[in-house]
Design brief:
five-stranded parallel β-sheet; 45 helices
């Protein structure tokens, strides 16, 4: 579970922030301030030992002496072997009272064996407690017990006696055990933390951090089979890297089974060899079937008493039978059972299941495919028909899997290539770019058909673009578009539309010119949605009226034929043209199509586009949810463009809601290892997120430098990204005023103003007017403020409009026009409160008070969780440095949060914190 970031004290542990925080509290309890015993449980491979190791490192860094024992299955029958291992560094216990030392000698001394029958258990327990107490008098102790399920019973008794008597002693105890093996003395009496499966995001990050990270389909299968188990995520790639392959033919019959290493087999199938032959036969049927019904198994093996045969496996914890269904405990148990059988045994199991499932053609086809010994046209046709049914339900990932296997079984080369190409198309709609690249890359070696090869290149180009390889993507896509412009204009337009996404993300002028040139070679109007998207990317600012007509034509065509491709293209077109509400509606419909089936809804690119539109539309909670969903989907699928983009959006939201430290961290994590010079849209969005974080933190000089980097340093500044940079002009001007860089910012705004003429969108016009107003020293600023606010069309972008209201209200108040300022400030405050834009809420409330309005003091309940935690520690008398050390923050960040806490609580001094928190119901 190493290689990643989740906890500030160890950037190498992934997905365990809650567990690490709890272990940190345990270490802090060595002073008696909290529970001094913690039990850590989890399934095999969950990472318990990694957490125990981390606790040891942290304890050692804090000056605690470490005493440690690890249970061993081989020593489980040796009395007191565990306690002896734990106490060995302290023995023989010199300086203890004679009675205690004698008891320890009897238990652990050279002559211990002859005293075994005469040991007094209570005397031994008291003596061990005395030994620990004596050692703790010289410094605090950390007792670590790992693999406690294998400790001998005598050691468990002594440890339980000790654990119940640590109060008043500077000692803490951490005991880790498998969830089904927690010793009886510890299973209820002490606090427990269960180490569960890693989240999808953390699992993907851990997998990608391995020396030989899998790509494409293998990556998705490992993530599915590992089910968040850290050890499996480490071991399964090793097995694949060594050339061991699983059974891909069983993919539709419950998922493909991957090979296990010996280490995983020992953890998940150690009981298998000792089971009766009939039980192993029944388990093989379950493994071959995947999650299944008892009746299916009984039809497949009428000669076997399935229920009785499964009983030993159920008692061993390998399988669960309930409600007429049978489920193996973990996907890795399924792999272990499946690969423990010979190919002949596996084949017979699949044939038996296929015969039992004659009325279920999809499942039957998969079992026949798993039993196939070579190419088989009949089985291939059955799988292709199953794929078509899956596509009709929106199950694109299932369709891609079925078509890939159907292609393997297809004897005819051209039909094999066509099925593989169709599989790649389904994988694209399922949102798996690396898998698409694998599938499309194999088509060229199967056929000389130029049309099939061109379609494969189109799909390969899409996959390259989504993985941030824009130059390679455009070399393929633009080449296909030009080569087929006259012979196959529909295919050419599809390639051009796909290329447009990489052209936009790249931001390079050369590719926009090529998009324009090649688009002029393609005739026909069969795909108005694709043409609208390709054209809007070229120049969305200066051709807006014409492009808006193209959008309307595409929407009219959409009423006749609604497809994923058309919906996605028109959603993107509406977003770029600042038809944001329309974009939200279209992209929302796209997501509805993707979610109609359980295997669909995995198109991360669409989800991210929707997140961006929701963010601009002022639906920040929905935007954050969509960005989170896009991030984990992209992490699973390997869609780097979305992984980075969703991370940047989440960082932007963190900054806007008042957590600049988290925003900076998330923004930097999002782009780590990524060359943003080849993706200018992401580069300027990252700069914007970093600039907002600095602005909120009060570092206006850094904020200005970050935002200034979204425009070139030329004599006549230009946008770094021809479209995205323009929307940051207002924030650039606001930072410039506070950083004393108004003159430099004015050169940027003046240059952009000239370039935007004559007809920018209402949104861009408002952004430009706000920036101009902020940088204008004369009364002409009022004209620009009013121009930024007067167009009702700008209500679609509530945060941007609220910023203009705030800026205008401040400007009016400084000119002693407080009565005029108050309505603007009130409008801004209402919006900021609704969006939970805390820094702007506080600033606006202060301006309103200064303008003579009465504003309610924010109750303590409005503190963020981190603000509340910091306030409570400060109320206890801790200094900023003490708080920073405890929470793994910088003292500067602590001071920043306290600076926000004081006005929220209506206080002015640190000494008032305790009373204010108590009155607000926040004490404790």
């Amino acid at each position: 579970m190493h290689a990643g970031t989740d906890h500030p004290s160890d950037p190498g542990i992934l997905g365990r922030s809650a567990e690490l925080a709890r272990l940190d509290r345990l270490l802090g309890s060595v002073d008696g301030s909290g529970p001094q015993v913690l039990v850590l449980t989890g399934e095999p491979g969950a990472g318990k030992s990694t957490l125990v190791d981390w606790t040891a490192e942290q304890g050692r860094a804090r000056g605690l002496r470490i005493l440690r024992v690890r249970g061993s299955e081989g020593e489980a029958g040796l009395g007191l072997s565990g306690v002896h291992q734990l106490l060995h560094p302290l023995l023989p216990g010199e300086g203890l009272p004679a009675g205690h030392q004698e008891a320890l000698d009897r238990a652990f001394g050279p002559e211990a064996a002859q005293y075994e029958l005469h040991l007094d258990q209570l005397s031994l327990c008291v003596s061990v407690l005395g030994l620990i107490t004596e050692a703790a008098a010289h410094g605090p102790l950390l007792l670590l017990v790992d693999d406690a399920q294998w400790l001998d019973l005598g050691s468990v008794d002594v440890l339980a006696f000790l654990a119940r008597r640590l109060e008043g002693r500077p000692v803490v105890l951490l005991l880790a055990a498998r969830e089904d093996g927690v010793p009886a003395r510890f299973d209820r009496a002490f606090p427990q933390v269960t180490v569960g499966s890693l989240s999808r995001t953390a699992a993907g990050q851990l997998l990608d951090a391995q020396p030989d990270p899998p790509r494409g389909k293998a990556r998705a299968e490992i993530l599915q089979q590992a089910a968040g188990n850290p050890l499996a995520l480490i071991e399964l790639p090793r097995a694949l890297a060594r050339g061991r392959t699983g059974d891909m033919g069983a993919g539709g019959a419950g998922g493909a089974t991957l090979p296990l290493t010996a280490r995983l087999e020992n953890l998940f199938a150690a009981d298998l060899p000792g089971l009766p032959a009939t039980t192993r036969a029944a388990l093989l049927l379950v493994a071959a079937a995947g999650p299944t019904r008892l009746t299916d198994l009984m039809r497949a093996a009428p000669e076997l008493d399935v229920i009785s045969a499964l009983d030993p496996a159920e008692r061993a914890g390998l399988v669960r039978v309930a409600d007429g269904g049978v489920l193996l405990r973990h996907p890795l148990v399924r792999s272990a059972v499946y690969h423990a059988a010979s190919f002949h045994e596996r084949r017979q199991a699949h044939l038996a299941l296929a015969a039992a499932l004659a009325e279920e053609p999809d499942r039957r086809a998969w079992h026949l495919a798993a039993a196939a010994t070579g190419q088989d046209a009949e089985v291939a046709d059955a799988l292709a028909e199953s794929a078509e049914r899956a596509r009709g339900r929106g199950g694109y990932a299932a369709a891609a899997t079925a078509l890939e296997r159907a292609a393997q079984l297809t004897p005819a080369p051209d039909l094999r290539a066509r099925r593989l190409l169709t599989a790649a198309q389904a994988a694209m709609f399922a949102g798996h770019p690396q898998w698409v690249g694998e599938l499309s890359g194999r088509v060229g070696g199967m056929t000389e058909d130029p049309r099939l090869r061109a379609e494969a290149s189109l799909l390969g180009g899409w996959a390259l673009g989504v993985t941030l390889r824009h130059e390679e993507a455009l070399a393929l896509l633009l080449g296909v578009a030009e080569a087929t412009a006259t012979s196959a204009p529909e295919l050419a337009l599809g390639a051009l539309s796909t290329a447009a996404t990489s052209v936009y993300n790249s931001g390079a002028p050369y590719y926009r010119a090529e998009l324009h040139r090649i688009g002029g070679l393609i005739g026909g109007d069969d795909d108005p949605a694709g043409r609208a998207w390709a054209q809007v990317v070229i120049d969305p600012v200066h051709e807006r009226p014409r492009l808006t007509r193209h959008l309307a034509e595409g929407l009219a065509a959409l009423a006749q034929e609604e497809s994923l491709g058309n919906l996605t293209a028109l959603g993107g077109t509406a977003w770029i043209l600042d038809e944001t509400e329309q974009a939200v509606r279209i992209l929302g419909r796209t997501m509805d199509v993707l979610r109609r089936a359980g295997s669909a809804g995995t198109n991360a690119t669409v989800t991210q586009a929707l997140a961006l539109a929701l963010f601009e539309n002022g639906s920040w909670t929905a935007a954050e949810d969509a960005a989170h969903e896009a991030f984990w989907m992209a992490t699973e699928a390997g869609a780097d463009n979305v992984t980075v983009g969703a991370g940047i959006l989440r960082a932007t939201l963190r900054a806007l809601q008042g957590d600049p430290a988290a925003a900076r961290t998330e923004a930097m994590q999002a782009v780590r290892g990524v060359d943003l010079r080849k993706s200018l849209s992401l580069q300027v969005r990252h700069r914007h997120a970093m600039g907002l974080a600095a602005f909120v933190a009060g570092d206006h000089a850094d904020a200005y430098e970050q935002l200034r980097a979204t425009f070139t340093r030329d004599f006549r500044p230009a946008p770094v990204h021809y479209h995205a940079s323009l929307y940051y002009l207002g924030d650039l001007a606001a930072a410039a005023v506070r950083a004393g860089r108004s003159d430099d910012a004015r050169t940027v705004v003046d240059a952009v103003e000239q370039d935007l003429k004559p007809d920018p969108s209402p949104r861009l016009a408002a952004v430009l007017h706000r920036a101009t107003a902020l940088l204008t020293d004369t009364d002409d600023a009022e004209h620009h403020f009013r121009a930024a606010l007067d167009d009702p069309a700008t209500d679609c972008w509530p945060f941007e409009k609220a910023l203009a209201h705030l800026d205008f209200g401040e400007w009016l108040r400084r000119r002693r026009r407080s009565a005029e300022a108050r309505p603007h400030l009130s409008a801004a405050l209402e919006c900021f409160q609704r969006l939970d834009a805390r820094p702007w809420t506080e600033r606006t409330a202060a301006e309103l008070r200064a303008a003579g309005a009465v504003t309610a003091t924010a109750p303590a309940g409005e503190l963020t969780p981190q603000e509340r935690q910091i306030a409570e520690l400060a109320a206890q008398g801790l200094t900023n440095r003490d708080i920073a050390a405890r929470l793994f923050l910088s003292p500067r960040t602590v001071g920043y949060h306290l600076h926000k806490v004081f006005p929220k609580l209506g206080i002015t001094a640190r000494a008032q914190l305790r009373d204010a928190l108590t009155q607000g119901g926040q004490a404790g």
